[in-house]
Every structure is written in C-alpha cells, then in structure tokens.
Amino acid sequence: MTHALFDRRLIALRKHRAMRIDTGGRGFLAARVAEDLGDRLEAVKHGFGGALALGGPDGLARRLIEASGKAETIIAADLLVGERSRPGDLVADDECLPFAPESFDLAVSLMALNELNDVPGALMQIASTLKPDGLFLAAFPGGETLTELRQALAMAEAGLTGGASPRVAPMIDVREAGALMQRAGFALPVADTDRLTVRYDTLFDLIRDLREMGLGNSLLARNATPPPRALFLEAAARYAENFSDADGRIRATFEIVSLSGWKPHASQPRPLRPGSARVSLADVLGKELDGRQADGD
Which CA distances in Å does 78 have to 6, 54, 90, 165? Predict the structure, then answer.
C-alpha cells in the first residue's frame, strides 16, 4: 500500500482559494508549463479523437488542448471545477479516475502529478484509459523546485529549535519520472527538464506567490501549529545570505519536468532483436579506420 504523503482535501481547498484571487499575472508557473506542453502537442503531426485534460488551474489543461486544435472532444477532470468548466467536465481525483479502459486517444496532465500520493498507480490508470497508440503528455514541478526555500527554512528552524519540520514537499526527480513511465507500460517514454529562475525582493514575496498559486504546504506530516513569525524572519535572513544576487534580490528555482509516452501499438517503432542486425559493427568500424588511414596518408 502506498504511504500517503499529501492531504488531498487541503490541496483542493487551497486551489479553490487561489482561483478566487486576482493574481495579477503571478500564475506564471502554470502558464509556463502550459506553454511548453502546448508546443509539444502542436509538434505531433496527427490529430486525436477524444482527449482527457487532467489538472491545471481553472481549466488550463483543457484550454491548451483546445488551442492546439488537435482533439475533437475534450473532457476535463480535476479535484475541483472552476468558473471556466464546461458541460461534461468532472470533479475527479487523479488517483481514482472514473473512466473505462481505452476511452481516450490523448491525455494531458498539467501541474498535477507532483501532488499525488500514488504516482505509479495514477500513471497506470492513465495508460489504461488510453486507446492503443494514444499519447500521454504531462508537466509538473520537479525535484529542484524551491530548493533554496527548503534549505533556508531548514537552516532557520534548526537554528531556532534544534530540529526541522517538513515545510516544502519533496518533488519527483526527472530520472524517477522516466522510470515510472516505463513501469506504467508506456512505449517510447521521454522525460526531460527545464529550469526557471525567478527573482524576488524578499522571501515573503516568494511565499505570497506560492500561496496565490495554491502551492502551500499540504504535507500530512506538516506541523499543524502555525509557525512563529520569528521562523520566517530567520529564514528570510538565511535565504538572503545564501541565495541572493549582487543587487540583494533572492533567487528561486522552479524545475519543470515534462513527460511523454504512447500506449503501445503494433505500428510503433521497436528495437531490433539481439542478433538480427545485417551489418557487423566490426566491419563498419574497420571501414572507418581504413578511411582515416587513407586520409592520413
């Protein structure tokens, strides 16, 4: 049984609160992730029939699929339905998808996998909902995201109390993500990463952005007691001391992990069986060496 890491109800509440806030453009992370996924989807040469949009603040996953023009029909499923929902959209947990096997030709997950308690199980469910040769695309914050904040809070709390409570959730490493795609049975899996550095005046400006994006601490193991202001004052000082530029502004790292994989199908390219090659590698290397010797003469 998978050990629960996140309070999924709290995640939904914080996302609902974030949707009610006019962020003034501070939803930059979701917008950046959606732009990257949109580019990847548009690069696919053919279109799809039915598409499943998972996650994304207030229908963002659905909107990027619509903008691509690649799908005939789209169903969005998320922990909560926002103001931009459409008829047929569902309130559903990514960890327990209510769809029959082989229901969709395309599935897109936006800013969702990093908040699941059972990522392997969720990937297997997504693979099950896809028809053969169906495509899965996902993007989410990866392992290096907020590494500076994690270190500053840990140093501050250790200095004040001698211990530390988990305050920044662990993220999925890109190599782990690629292995999970293979484990879920996806063909031609690809996992890559992009790193974004955002600068802030203070740690408090960073925390405000995170709250307005619905990215507060949702760990089940978090300390339920409200942290004292002294902790954040000390963390702000540690952050500025260790992760600031010459102008005094602090740096925050956001790593974006992108995944793609296909439901296996007979038409997809496959590696050759061992021993089936028609040309000897030794012969190829011998010809190249002969050519180099001739050129050297």
Answer: 16, 6, 7, 29
Q: Give the helix/strand (H/E) hosting 51.
A: strand 48-55
Domains in the chain: ranges and CATH? 8-145+170-202+254-296 (3.40.50.150)
Tens-digit pLDDT profile for residues 34-90: 888 999 999 999 899 999 999 877 678 888 999 999 999 999 988 766 555 666 677
User: Do 55 and 245 form a contact (C-beta atoms < 8 A)?
Assistant: no
Q: Give me 222's structure tokens.
A: 């978090």
Closest listed residue to residue 55, CA positions, set 162, 265, 214, 247: 214
β 187-200/250-262 pair status: antiparallel
**Both structure tokens of 224:** 């339920």
pTM given for the model? 0.83
Using a 10 angstrom Cβ sphere, with 0-12 exposed, 13-18 middle and 19 or more buried, the burial of residue 215 is buried
For residue 226, what are its two tokens? 């409200």
